[in-house]
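Sample A.
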Amino acid sequence: LSASVPILDERRAEIEKIEKQTFKYGQRHRDNLDVYYPDQPILIPNAKVPVLFFVYGGSYNTGSRQFPPPYEMGYRALGSFFAQHGFITVIPDYRLVPEARFPAASQDIRDAIIWVKDNAKTIRSSSTSTVQELDPEHFFVMGHSAGAAHIKVMTMYEELRKMLPPLRGVIWNAGP
């Protein structure tokens, strides 16, 4: 991660030009998510904007949607990258071990997805730019490392899957 700091700092203005808003999706202290808004959304045939959820890793016991300095541009760059390519990008926090027990982290991610679906108008109206309607038929989820494991559980464990909105695509990156 340290090797990326100078590169991301060099591109800070480009990364920070993408609008970001933070929302609370539940009552717990970690029930927060960041939404990155595209300045030029790609519109699917129904003129709505697809949504990409990114779930970070962290060995199950660490991680946050926002890195501390000097690494703070890490997930901000990721959210901005996909927003620059037309997606509304959502990065939720979730409970960690030892506070959380199976399948709490996956429940939190599912709850964040449900919250976004149920609060699409709030997300849209909170933007300072003109954002098209979010498309709940085009929700994608990408997880890295432990985040990939959490979305595997979320999509395969019947108790969680039965409440999950339909997903258009799932990407498991470097997970177990």
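Sample B, a different protein:
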Amino acid sequence: MISRELRILLWVLCVHLAGIYLFTKGFLLTRLALPDRGAYASTELATHKRAVLLVIDALRFDFIAEYPPEPASPFHHNILTLPRELTAAHPDRSFIFNAHSDPPTTTLQRLKGLTTGCRGKLWGSSIHEDSIIHQLNAAGRKIALAGDDTWLTLFPDSFQPNMTFAFDSFNVEDLHTVDEGVIDNLLPLMRHHSWDFAIGHGLGVDHAGHRVGPDHPVLRVKLEQMNHLLRDVVAAMDDDTLLIMLGDHGMDKMGNHGGDSVLETMSALWVYSKVPLSLPEHTIPDAILPTITFPDATVPHRHVQQIDLVPTISLLLGLPIPFNNLGTVIPELFNRNGSSLQKAMELNAAQIRHYLDAYRSSSSGKELDAAWHDFSFAWDDIDSMDGNDRLIALDIFTRLVLSACRVLWAQFNIFLMGAGLAVIGLSIVAGWALYSKLRDVENDEWEKWVDDKVVWSFSASAVGFTIGYPMHIMFHEYLDGIATHQTMLFAAAISSLLVMITATRPTITLKSLKSLPIFLILHTLCFASNSFTVWEDRIVLFFLISSIAPSVITGFTAPTSRLRYRILGFSALFAVCARLMAMSTVCREEQHPYCTVTFYASESSSAPPIIALLLAFPVAIGVPRVVRRILRISKSDSGLAATFIPLLFAPSLIAGTLFWVLEWADSAQVLGDMGDVLRVMRTGLARTAAAVMLIGGISIWWTSPVCLAISKSQSSGASTTQEKTEVTVLGFANAFGSPYLMFWLIFLSIVWLMTQLSGQIVLGLSSIALLSYLEIIDSVRDVHGLNAAFTSATPSSTLDLTNTNRDLVFSEIVPLALLATHTYYSTGHQATFSSVQWKSAFVLGKTLSFPFSHVSVALNTFGSFLLYALAVPLVVLWNLPPVPHPRPKIGASALRAALGMSLYFAVLAFGAAACAAVLRRHLMVWKIFAPRYLVAVFELGVVDVGVLVGVGIGVGKVGREIGRVFGKVVDT
């Protein structure tokens, strides 16, 4: 049977997910993709019968630039030189461009844009709207593919079976298989003209960037290989073949991508033909030839939008332009006579105008109302122009539409956003009501009280879900863009929350208002400012150290020197650990030049710094020793702890550290050409460590979790000869906390395995900070107990050791929530897509495999929140003895702690969502506010799961086992 704690926390998780779903659906909407197909093709503009599209994944513009940034890198500059050599020799048929890749700069999204001419949908895989691939198939053209199998995901039935050579794209550690597959299959295809459009997509450059960063000899080798491939392709081309080489996106200084930084969005584009495409006697207006300067470069270069390739290739091959295209033809490639460029631009503008008319006639047409006047004015202006002015007017129209539609691609549904905020907001009120009321419920009544609330809340949700359907039918005219199931979900969540709030009837007093958590309020308000959000990692450090200031003040006023030294000593240790953790940093783009990367060896490398390599093993060895030393204070290092820590926990940490040392040795080729051997070794090591802890560790803990040493002895009193049996129990004072800590250590070892070396050092410091904090709050409670006894009329009863009432206050939970966030930032993460450490996907295998790779990345990214959600019951369990009178309300206290932790992150999620909603038209919404909202909701989800597992499973098992050992005197 599911425990009542598990049921109530499951309800909390469900309402949070409902609110998150509703808000996210309203906030992250995608554009409407029209099903129409482009129909008009111009054969007079066609110049080639065939084309080769060679995608070199993550080929940044400066990798092929004639004038790269200064100082030039020996690892990625002036290596892939064929494009600039041919451009210098044949400027009429070789063209290099700096192409802007629309974010998110991921391969799947960029291929959608490269084939449709518009920004791809954020969700979904296969492409059903019009694209250049669909136009090729409709024209009976044969398409060949060699390389990245993402193309098959997007266009599953579009390639010739006998000319399709697809390779796995997710094995980041494999730098050569896909590239060699392109070389081995694309070049033989080019010798036979049985194809019309050949795609080659290599991944070695991208994988090298992820693996070792751009400033590494491995990337130089890959670029040299691509340069040789280009020479072979050019040599195999005939006059009827057009070559387009491009990077689908760039890479940042670390070699990662996915965001919208300049380095990620500036990709390379080279177009080459063996027949002239542009004649020098015909000039093009400078107004339609924009330039841009690459960061740290001195010479500007021609700049285009990456989606401009779609109409350009379509017309050069005699195909209709895809219907949804918003790109503009590249002028240089149509500058052959006095009319070809104008003809191409007119066809392009007419296609875009046709798209706008169709879009305005659709159900989403009113989205264009605000910009329609500008569109019409720009379109009408074309007719009044001729010559170069007409070309400029055509360019202005197409670029105006692109700029306006980029805004439309991020339309918001205010109803859904408001519904989501309402659900999340009411969930906070309901959570606070539960948290507050549980403190006042009598020991013997809390179980029935919780059971009643669970039944009522789930019943109300069922009723609300049922009523939601007729409500949607009645008001659907006013619920624009809201689906039936969304109305039903909203009704279910709101009904359940209102019933819970009404049933608990929280009382608001002046005392409760004075105890509002100031750090939570300030933390949430940070999301209203882009600068505060950017520097959240530094702000959290200040909040974290400040949060223990009341404990330090209590330490100075402690009535005994022992308590004073304990509080001040552990507070100092806590602060030192927090400050040392802050020395590990990964910088956001907006933090430069005031931030220096220390998590990695440099900002352009993904290797660990030397200090991490030196300290990794000492920390892995030291953490188990510190844990045992802390347990020894309460003599709880016996029983399970005596064997679990040295025989399971300590070896698992060493194995996790050894895995990443071997990964570094493989990447740096320290041991020469032993990559395959090292891969097998570390994969086996990781799988063994994970299996031992998850299967062996949990099994042993479940069988006998107690950390007690019980001994019996016979003694006789001075006044009697009858012997008495004396029972000595070592670890009695921490009977609940120590076995739960063993449970927590299992999860720490798994997160440790998924974390890189610098992050492991941070996790070690964070674990020590956690144990220090537990000792701090235990000592502070002792101080309060002594002070209460000194002022009480019955000091003996106040000092009674059997009084185990733990009146949890929210301020005791705040440092753990802040420590979780601080650990997140210190383990190499930021609220940016590019900070995701994709290496962790390959801890348990050399290839991407569901669900192991996905879980590994999730644990690497959000493991700190899972750990501290699991750790929050220790706030009430630590140094809690299992005395018989009165029966300690362990379950209720742990549930309150879990609700408090969930409340903290629910408020953060609400604040992030509200600020993202209010600032949805802010310049930085997609760069700062939206990513922070996504991180906040993932934090909340992970915390909800963590407290559910910790309280529902860990605390329940510990309580039952301690009750069994001590004669079932403990109420769980």
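Observation for Sample B: The longest helix spans residues 925-965.
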